[in-house]
Each structure stands twice: as structure tokens, then as C-alpha cells.
């Protein structure tokens, strides 16, 4: 009673309340939620995914790349309560939003990843850093000419920035990527 308690559940138990919340906010049924949970707990017995484990998971998917920089941005996007770890609820909601939502929702998740400053816009520095992180992740070493991250970021901003303020808003990002499948594949391959 006198001790501090987090508002978020830190145990490994999946309650009926959590299942109801996840069913309401994803397209997963109870069986799928329980299967995801069992897998999550198998990989994260404490019920929490820390940054180190997050990088290890990405390393499995990109064995020839260097996921550290990319994972920093992705982890911060998925750790919605900013407690330094991802619990099962944050994990499944992130998986669902990036893979199940409609195109606007999936592009919104991608926008949140790129908007490192959380100011509702993506500037050239943020975009350049994410392009570098993505190149590192996939093992891309050719960064000259059109593949130069700073040039590529400037070109993308020039293409998507309809307001002319050298920043991309969420609306500009979503509209631009919906209209350009090649750019969508580059910036939001899962969308």
C-alpha cells in the first residue's frame, strides 16, 4: 500500500482486461493475442523488452546490417510510456499498427518513427539521420550520388513539402507516400 506502483502492469500475466483492450485496438482474436503473448514471454520472461534485447531481435532479421541506430528510433517510438522498456501491450499495439492498420495508420506509425523531435514535423536532419540508420540496418554501403543520405533527404523533403517550409507534416508525409509507391517502399516498406 505504501510502496510506489507503476500504473502499467509489469507482471507476465495476461488478464481478461488486457485481452479485451487488445481485441478492441487490434484485429487479433483472443487466440492470436494469447499466442503472441506466449511468444513474447518466452523471449522476454520478465514481461519487458529492453533496448538490448530489441537490438538482438532486429539483428536476427538483418544479420548483415548494423541495427543499433535504427533500433534507437524504433524503440523510442514503441516505448509509448517512455519507461525504457516495451511491455506486451506496447509491443502488440505497435505490431498491429505497423502491420494491420489501414494505410493511413501504417504511414502514421512510420511518420512517428521519423519525427524524432516529436514536434509534428520531419526536418532534413531527422530524415537524414533515419536514412543513415536504415542504410546501416540493411547493410547499404553505397552512399554516393543519389544515395547520399543528405541529398536523398533534401530531395524527399522537396517532393513532399507542399507548404514550402522545408519540413514535412504528418498530412504531407501520408499524402506524399500514398501518391508515390516508390517513396513509400523506401520510407515505409511495411505500409
From TrEMBL:
Keywords, alphabetical: Calcium, Metal-binding, Repeat
Q: Where is the EF-hand domain positioned along the sequence?
A: 66-101, 102-137, 148-183
CDD domains, per database record: EFh
Q: Does the keyword Repeat apply?
A: yes
The record, for Pfam families, names: EF-hand_1, EF-hand_7
| A GO molecular function held by the record | calcium ion binding
State the superkingdom: Eukaryota
The residues the entry assigns to the signal sequence are: none
- Family assignment? Belongs to the recoverin family.
**Under what name is this protein listed?**
EF-hand domain-containing protein
Native species = Adineta ricciae (Rotifer)
Amino acid at each position: 500500500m505504501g510502496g510506489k506502483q507503476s500504473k502499467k502492469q509489469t507482471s507476465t500475466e495476461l488478464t481478461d482486461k488486457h485481452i479485451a483492450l487488445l481485441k478492441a485496438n487490434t484485429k487479433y482474436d483472443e487466440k492470436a493475442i494469447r499466442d503472441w503473448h506466449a511468444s513474447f514471454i518466452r523471449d522476454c520472461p520478465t514481461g519487458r523488452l529492453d533496448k538490448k534485447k530489441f537490438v538482438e531481435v532486429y539483428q536476427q532479421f538483418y544479420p548483415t546490417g548494423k541495427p543499433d541506430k535504427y533500433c534507437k528510433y524504433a524503440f523510442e517510438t514503441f516505448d509509448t510510456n517512455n519507461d525504457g522498456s516495451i511491455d506486451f501491450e506496447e509491443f502488440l499495439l505497435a505490431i498491429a499498427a505497423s502491420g494491420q492498420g489501414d494505410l493511413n495508420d501504417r504511414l502514421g506509425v512510420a511518420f512517428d518513427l521519423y519525427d524524432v523531435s516529436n514536434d509534428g514535423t520531419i526536418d532534413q536532419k531527422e530524415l537524414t539521420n533515419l536514412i543513415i540508420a536504415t542504410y546501416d540496418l540493411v547493410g547499404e554501403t553505397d552512399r554516393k550520388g543519389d544515395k547520399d543520405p543528405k541529398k536523398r533527404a533534401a530531395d524527399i523533403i522537396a517532393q513532399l513539402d507542399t507548404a514550402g517550409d522545408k519540413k514535412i507534416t504528418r498530412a504531407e508525409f501520408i499524402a506524399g507516400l500514398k501518391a508515390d509507391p516508390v517513396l513509400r517502399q523506401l520510407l515505409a516498406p511495411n505500409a
